[in-house]
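User: Fold this; tokens only.

Assistant: Input:
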Amino acid sequence: MSKIDHAMHQLQSLEMLANEDRWMNRLHPSVKLFITIFYIVFVVSFSKYQLAGLLAMAIYPAALFIIGELSFKDALHRLRIVLPVVCMVGIINPFLDRNVAITLFGIGISGGVLSMLSLMVKGVLAVLASYLLIATTSIEKICYALRQAHVPKILVSEVLLIYRYLTVLLSEARRVVTAYSLRAPGQKGIAVNAWGSLAGQMLLRSMDRAERVYQSMCLRGFRGEFYPAHQGKMRGTDWLWFLFWTLLLVALRYGNVTELIGKLFV
């Protein structure tokens, strides 16, 4: 399987995962969207030395992996490129801040190490929360929740179109690469002197395909906004889920839970 086919397969498998009939998937999309936003805001709001509090915030993704019956191994496999990049943020901090901040089991830990670990944990938790939202909510439902939050329709339409027709762009790229490989048998990869012409051909083919898609959409009544299937009003379970996680996240962020966890480690 080529890299393009593998990318298309990953997108399709993630979409199938979001459309499965599970309890987490049936929750109202607005609830899941707002809780994810609140969670990321709370995680980012921790100071660079509050590592214990950040570790306590890992309760949310851990619980969702269990309740949603999602595989943590598959999540790491899908995020294998993003997570290392996120963990690289702040890697230079230990060289900038060498003052000892805490002593753990007789070992002095500098403030730079703490801030580096805090940035890593923040990035990983934010990426996992976003993945859990996408894995339990289809793109149509996410766009519906965005419109319910009065996000401008042009932005919502752009998000939906980019996600929906990303596979179309990948299929066009696969055709170009296949045509090149047939004209250059035995050659490994694409020659550097052919990159410009192939990129230009892909751009022109994508523009032609986009024009045909847009004309088809206009013939079917598109007037600048999508109207996804109505998700109905929020049920009692939706409100309970929203209130439970909102109160728990507030307690983890502003309560004494972080101090108790910090005393256990320090």
